[in-house]
Each structure stands twice: as structure tokens, then as C-alpha cells.
């Protein structure tokens, strides 16, 4: 039990020393992805399959850009904090 308390305090010290970096573009990308997905589903429901298919492709692009931002931010700030 004694070792477990020491490990917990070491982890707490480590997390207090590290700063969390937030990228404001990631939530924007998530909302854009959700918006394009919603518009695509609505167009499919209305019977406009050609527009819906274009919107689904756009959703994949926006979602990929959001993931790329997340990975890029983690890589860039990974060693600095």
C-alpha cells in the first residue's frame, strides 16, 4: 500500500507540471464535421442523393483535417511541455 501512495503522488506531480495545450481549431473542425453530416443526412432524407453524396465526401475531408490538426498539435507541443 505504501508504494501505491508514492506512485500516486508522483503522478500528481507530473500532471501538475505539464500544461495542457488546447487548440481552438479542433472544436471548430468538430462542429463543421457535425454540420456537414447533418446537412448530408437532411439532403438524403429529402431525396437529393447527389447533393447528399457530395456532402458526405466533404464530411470526410473536414473530419480528416480535424484529425490532422489534432495529431499535428500533439506532435508540435509534445516535447515542449
UniProtKB/TrEMBL annotation:
It holds the Pfam family HIG_1_N. It is found in: Mitochondrion membrane. It comes from Salvia divinorum. This is RING-H2 finger protein atl48. It comes from the Eukaryota. GO terms for cellular component: mitochondrial membrane. Residues 1-81 form the HIG1 domain. InterPro entries: Hypoxia_induced_domain, RCF1. PANTHER family: HIG1 DOMAIN FAMILY MEMBER 1A, HYPOXIA-INDUCBILE GENE 1 HIG1 -RELATED. The chain crosses the membrane at residues 25-44, 56-77. Keywords: Membrane, Mitochondrion, Transmembrane, Transmembrane helix.
Amino acid at each position: 500500500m505504501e508504494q501505491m501512495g508514492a506512485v500516486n503522488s508522483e503522478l500528481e506531480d507530473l500532471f501538475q507540471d505539464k500544461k495542457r495545450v488546447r487548440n481552438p481549431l479542433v472544436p471548430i473542425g468538430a462542429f463543421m464535421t457535425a454540420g456537414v453530416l447533418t446537412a448530408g443526412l437532411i439532403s438524403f432524407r429529402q431525396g437529393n442523393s447527389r447533393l447528399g453524396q457530395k456532402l458526405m465526401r466533404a464530411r470526410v475531408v473536414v473530419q480528416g483535417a480535424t484529425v490532422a490538426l489534432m495529431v499535428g498539435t500533439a506532435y508540435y507541443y509534445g516535447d515542449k511541455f
